[in-house]
Write a structure and sequence with these properties.
alpha+beta; about 30% strand; elongated; 9-stranded antiparallel β-sheet
Length: about 240
Amino acid sequence: MRWQTTAWMPVMEGMEDVFGSLNNLKQDIERMKFPMGTQDNPARTCNDLQLSQPDYPDGEYWIDPNQGCTGDAIQVFCNFTAGGETCIFPDKKSAGVRISNWPKETPGAWFSEFKRGKILNYVDMTESTIATVQMTFLKLLSSSARQNFTYICHQSVAWFDAKADSYDKALRFLGSNDEELSYDNNPFIKPLTDGCSLKQGYSKSVLEINTPRIDQLPIIDVMLNDFGESNQRFGFEVGPVCFLG
């Protein structure tokens, strides 16, 4: 009996390891099926989180689109009111600029070419850079994306020029796929308001890009076309990019 007990001990220890691994796997599957949106139990997207936790309010949650190690999870804003959008914001230096007459700049130039300009960058809610692989998987898991751009103006056109009855001075955007987007090649850009079209004092125009072409967003640059006269001024605000799907 002593020999039999000794012989079985390695077998029982091996089975304990197997059962432990199976239990860990079960827990991992449960976390994937019912994510909590926390850093140690993130969802793939806000849409997945809403399906798992339908009573959650809009707010900041953790997601892990590539479902790898949770160490690279990112904190985003979940807009459940809009159907479970996953929203990522520009960093502080990309969020916009104050209204100015920009005397040292040339109309028709990209903002990144301005002395005070830059390529627009996006971060998670902790102000951390989002890994390329996470952004790629987020786009693969989405069916549409939208982003707003607000142009603040004084005697400066953003989209439609009512006095000239033309779009010749409309803003142009550079998408994250290096594709130019504007009135003449993209039907997914719509003005929500276009007060700048009248060129009467201070106003603003809000343009929304709402596209099934996920690779176009977020925008990374903007071309400004209507400034340079002494009475002209502009500034802008860059909104978050929100992925749905």
